[in-house]
Amino acid sequence: MKFKYFPLGVNYLKNIENKKDVLVVFSDYFLENAFLKLRDKNILVPGGTFLTFDEFQKEIFVTDRIVLTEAKRPLTLYQNISQEVKDFFDIKNYYDIIDIADLFFTYYRDLNLNLISKIDTTLFTEWQKDRIEKFDKMKEEYDKFLGKNNFIPSDWIVDEENFNTEFIEKFNKIVFVDNLCFTPLLKKVIKELDKNIEIEFILQGNSDIYNEDELTLNKIDMGEKYFQLDSSKVKVYETNEDIETVFNLLYILSEEKKLKNIYTPRLNDEYFSKIMPKYFINGKLKIMEDTWLYKFMNLQNDLIKSIEERKELGLKIENFLEFIENLLTQKIYGISKEIKKIFYKIMEEEYRYISPKVFEDLWIKDLIKDNEEIVEIFKNLYEDLLRIKNFKSTDEFYNYFKEIGFEKIADREYIDFLEKFHEVMFNVRSSESLLGKKGFQEIFKKDCGQYIYTLIIKYLEGIELKSIEKEKNDKFVGFLKKIEEAKINFGEKSYYVDITNRNLPGNIEKNQMFTDKQLEELGFETRETEINLMKYRFLQYLGNSKENIIFYKKEKDGKIGKSVFLEELMIEKNIKVEDKILNTTTGLKMIEEYLYKERNFTLNNNEFQMKKDIENLCNKDGIIEVGTYDILKINECQYKFLLDKIYGLDETKENQYGGSLRVLGIIVHSILEKVTEKVYYEIITKNNFEVDEELVTNILRNEIRKNNMKIPTYLDIYFERVMAPHIKQGVIKFYKKLEDKLKGEKVKSFFGEKDKRYFSEYNKDDKTKPDIMIRGRMDLIVATENKSLIIDYKTGSKADGQLDIYSIMNGNENIKGYIYNVLKKELEEVEQKITEKDLDDIFKKFVEDENYSKKEKSCGGCIYENICRKEVI
Rounded to an integer, what distance in angstroms lies between the CA atom of residue 12 and that of residue 279? Predict the structure, then answer.
């Protein structure tokens, strides 16, 4: 065996032989493609044969058995193992076996690759021994099925018994290019081939990087021993946010005259081409997962899985709303923007599930009176879900998509989309035929349609598609590529983004069967080996480029920071983080250039203030209407009021019950309102505050039933056994506490006021200012001959100032405000802090301020902090 070593930065591909009797095996297709573009072509002289390492293995490990593809393996395994094994792994249905099947097939593949016929179980714990014993039992049963049908799983083909030299015999030489790691099986094969064929290895770095006897990469560090890397050609920048990285890179690339290569370890979810599609192109291979149909099927299947029998076969609202955002869903069912808005308004009423019955709600009937087609749209969508849930065969799915129309589901961006879709459906049908006469019903006993749908989606995954090439216009500045491609960017400038600890080395999965120490003792590849290879590759990327510009993101919480590889390199080579590229002036210039240029819009610092348009805040009668909570928000922070009230961004808070505190509040308010309607006459005529326990129980039960679709299933038992008795006691206790508070007093009135209106006198000296009307809903007003009480029911925290405003609205004379917390069973008097003058001052400032002012104190904890950015701007 011969070994050739080339320094980093040298385009060694030019030196690779291109002869008829030479087989060249590249580590990956990036390298192969780069060579094929460089090679000298002479049609009169036959050239060599060029393969990737994976293609090479397929040529030397061959079988005449029928190959079971990845998707067919778990199906056949599930059908051909004993109940005893299923019980051991708690396999109740097909989908329970998928993870176990992956472990099973990987385990025996690794034994083949590592030339282990019988594993030494003395290395393992009892649970590992039990699992291996059951795996051996599974294999014994499964091998009978494979032998009977002449089948072999696709990843068991690479095995010593399938090694075949027929393909190799026509070559005199094999050249391995950039191949660094070999399994024991491949090492044995290579050493066997070396007896008759010349074997050569081409590697980058010096001879110290590689153990030639063991065909193994040595431990790599960032020092000069292995690589001569010029640190002056590496610049590192730190950013805090994705958009900052985008603008920093745009700023640098604005001076470049041609499309530049940008490398990322997260190409599948890079954000450059999403934030700035006019300026960045994603170069990843297009696959089925990128299509609208795949997304539609996935969302539709998730929606089917969400159907809840305990909620009148309702659909989970979050799955439903995600489904109707899909463009294909909107196209198939005719969902317009207006219809979509109505569905979101239904969600705002705290519905956790949606079914045809929801549309019988009086409030929803009122909401949809001008858009009654929404009922028919939902009915069609819902009936399709129930129909699919009961499908029994692949053909029923095929016919379903045929009904929709292949012209509707076809993704025009991909040339061969329909061809590949039909090919997948054919493959699923062939899997179905493996299972006998009953097909999928043989293994999917219940919800057959749902399981077949999941299987079809699984078959679609990873299918490559030919996309219609986008024309690269002059605006494009960057081409996003996999970081692995950087190693072929010889002598060019390379740009790297997201070089963070989350991506390099990233989260390398632990072996689910063995510890790293056990893997090492067995001779298997360890996580340490994988990380060492990744470190070598990182140095290779940098060393082959003429110059390297690296960006990493550092988040405030410290969870994301620079890659450990980059950290080690910077310490070893004394590389410092460069100064920030963008400041306020250059940042504004970039935003203006790339976001607003076409709109003739200019920016300056002052325009980050949001100007107030008082006229647009008024209703048709010229009055500004506000609620009590609006006033509290205006007083706290006018900008927060703008985002919440004017722009409609909801301030949602996590709550301790897992469901919505608002629903709990609605239920409790409604119960107290209905109980009050039953008892108020006894109170005002006889001062009798006694409440019938059975009355409260019935009202409570009805309210929970009425709000059933608003309560998640996992809270049903909690509501029934914990919350219901607690609420019941809290309601009964309220009237007793009120009786104690009003002892000796004659109650004159006892009612709730649903729509109290009050006009502020803040503008009495200047009627050019608009009137402001406060609307309030007071839970309970109790009046005696000597005093009045305003009582607000609560299930959570109180809003300071709310009762002060109610008191002002009711004349503010001899009125006391109380809060009754139903869950804590506490009646608390609230000290008045906001006076009528304070209220007028709040309104006066609000109307006179030119901009929506922001509060002076720290905004930590405000949910609008990342929108407001007061601390930054």
Answer: 33
- Tokens 């004159």 belong to 748
- Residue 122 has what pLDDT? 87
> 9 is written with which tokens?
């930065």
Count Cβ atoms within 10 A of the Cβ of residue 831 and give its class: 0-12 exposed, 13-18 middle, 19 or more buried: exposed
Residue 238 confidence (pLDDT): 94
Sorted by sequence, the CB contacts under 8 Å of residue 147 that are 6+ apart come out as none
- Can you give the C-alpha Rg of the chain in angstroms? 35
Q: Do the Cβ atoms of 263 and 541 come closer than 8 Å?
A: yes
Q: Is 621 helix (H, G, I), strand (E, B) or coil?
A: coil
3-state secondary structure of 215: coil
Contact 731, 739 (CB under 8 A): no
Q: Which residue, among 54, 55, 15, 56, has the nearest Cα to 38 in the 3D structure? A: 15
Question: Which two three-digit tokens encode residue 312?
Answer: 């009148």
Percent of residues in the chain assigned helix, strand, coil, to nearest 5 = 50, 15, 35
Residue-by-residue DSSP string for 11-50: -GGGGS---TTEEEEESSHHHHHHHHHHS---TTS---EE
Q: Which long-range contacts (CB under 8 A, 24 or more apart) does 14-18 make?
A: 14/38, 15/202, 16/175, 16/177, 16/202, 17/48, 17/173, 17/175, 18/47, 18/48
| Residue among 126, 117, 127, 76 nearest 98 (CA) | 76
Nearest in space to 93 (alpha carbons), one of 424, 391, 455, 425? 455
Whole-number pLDDT of residue 653? 40
pLDDT, tens only, 114-161 = 999 888 888 899 999 999 999 999 999 999 999 999 999 999 999 999
> Which tokens in the block code for residue 111?
């034994």
Identify whether the C-beta of residue 801 lies closer than 8 Å to the C-beta of residue 833: yes
CA distance 397 to 381: 15
Tally of CB atoms within 10 A around 101: 23
Beta bridge partners of 211: 216
Q: Which residues of the chain have pLDDT under 70?
A: 40-45, 469-474, 584-585, 588-589, 591-609, 648-660, 812, 856-858, 860, 866, 869-873
The pTM is what?
A: 0.76
Please state, in angstroms and rounded to a whole number, the distance separating the CA atoms of residues 398 and 177: 45
Residues 6+ apart with CB under 8 A from 252: 495, 549, 581
DSSP helix/strand/coil, 287: strand
pLDDT of the residue at 603: 47
Cis previous bond, 153, omega within 30? no
Q: Pick from 768, 848, 762: which is nearest to 808 by CA?
A: 762
Amino acid in position 426: F
Output the six-digit token pair for 651: 């301030």
What is residue 762's predicted lDDT score, i.e. its pLDDT? Answer: 92
How many CA atoms lie within 13 Å of 399's alpha carbon, on the beta-carbon side?
9
Euclidean distance between CA atoms 101 and 78, whole angstroms: 8
Q: Is 168 exposed, middle or buried (0-12, 13-18, 19+ CB in 10 A)?
A: middle
The closest of 271, 292, 289 to 280, measured between CA atoms, is: 271
**Do residues 47 and 18 make contact, with C-beta atoms less than 8 angstroms apart?**
yes
Distance CA 841, CA 835 (A): 10
**Separation between Cα atoms, residue 543 and residue 4, nearest integer Å:** 18
Asked if residues 60 and 34 have their Cβ atoms less than 8 Å apart, the reply is no
8 Å CB contact between 329 and 380: no
Q: How far is CA 36 from CA 252, 280, 371, 633, in A?
A: 32, 27, 61, 66
Contact between 23 and 49 (Cβ < 8 Å): yes
Q: Which of 428, 435, 426 is nearest to 452 (CA)?
A: 428
Hunting for tokens 């699919």 — which residue is that? 388
Provide the pairing of β-strand 547-553 with 353-354.
unpaired
CA distance 164 to 147: 21
Length of the chain as a residue count: 873
Cβ atoms 286, 507 nearer than 8 A: no
* Contact of 549 with 496, CB cutoff 8 Å: yes
